[in-house]
Write a structure and sequence with these properties.
With 127 residues, the protein is mostly helical. 79% of the residues lie in helices and 0% in strands.
């Protein structure tokens, strides 16, 4: 068993599951989407991105691109949240929550693509 592959797969799947945990719930209800879940999703996605930098294959490039998309979407969601709460002073209205969760949904889709690539790559391995 290759420990590097285990850690790589762990962070890819953890990134997807944390993002899913934040995403699930009523899209416009701020009580269903906690800021610490979003923070955890961002941190784990960034770790997964760093782990993807070492792969020089074509599938590795696609892994990296999906991770960068997820990072961008999640950081944008955090920025929208921060601006709504700390800059505009409006707080987490239904509209702001919908925007944050929608951006998280885009990141979730990128995470799902990354998990599918991981599964395909694993199935295609030859001994």
């Amino acid at each position: 068993m290759n420990l590097e592959k285990v850690v790589f797969g762990f962070f890819i799947v953890l990134a997807a599951t944390l993002n899913f945990g934040f995403f699930i719930g009523e899209i416009d209800n701020p009580m269903h989407h906690h800021i610490y879940e979003l923070f955890a999703a961002i941190v784990v996605n960034l770790i997964a991105t760093i782990l993807k930098f070492g792969d020089r294959t074509q599938i590795g490039a696609v892994h990296l691109s999906t991770s960068l998309v997820a990072d961008l979407q999640l950081v944008a969601a955090a920025c929208v949240w921060a601006i709504a709460v700390h800059v505009s002073g409006d707080g987490m209205s239904a509209e702001v929550t919908t925007s944050v969760v929608s951006l998280s949904g885009g990141a979730l889709f990128a995470n799902v693509v990354s998990v599918i690539l991981l599964i395909v790559e694993t199935v295609m391995l030859r001994r």
